[in-house]
Write a structure and sequence with these properties.
Layout (H helix, E strand, L loop, with lengths): L5 E6 L2 E6 L1 H14 L27 E6 L5 E6 L7 H4 L9 E8 L4 E7 L12
Antiparallel strand pairs: 1-2, 3-4, 4-5, 5-6
């Protein structure tokens, strides 16, 4: 399975890492096309993460394809803490926009994404993904 690549970006003196879109697409292709052991499964989009087949990598800034004993495949990314975008929370360095876990899976009809933040405050500065 392809390993996600990273690009270092400098913006107003702040360095951040971005996952290259093509690497993510390649990982998805590996997840559902080339990896014969992983099968698609349906997620109920109700805000409950219990549908997800999550085994978050122990090391930050890494992704892996997790296949459980039922052969359900999920691409899971563990993000490094305290690296949120500053434009949403400036001048404060709150963790509202700090992504901790990103996961993707699919079935025959839909592509499902899970984005878990470090914390979210409803109403003040809504985070959009």
């Amino acid at each position: 399975m392809p390993v996600p690549s990273f690009v270092s970006v400098e913006h107003n003196g702040v360095s951040s890492r971005l996952v290259v879109s093509l690497a993510l697409l390649g990982a998805l292709a590996g997840l559902f096309g080339l990896h014969s052991d992983a099968v698609a499964y349906t997620i109920v989009p109700d805000g409950n993460a219990s549908d997800w087949n999550l085994n978050v990598p122990a090391s930050p800034d890494t992704a892996h394809l997790y296949v459980d004993t039922s052969s359900r495949g999920t691409l899971v990314w563990a993000d490094r803490g305290a690296d949120e975008r500053a434009d949403l929370t400036f001048p404060d360095r709150d963790t509202e926009a700090d992504i901790r876990t990103f996961a993707v899976t699919a079935d025959a009809n839909a592509l499902y994404f899970l984005v878990a933040m470090d914390s979210t405050v409803v109403g003040v500065r809504p985070v959009q993904v």
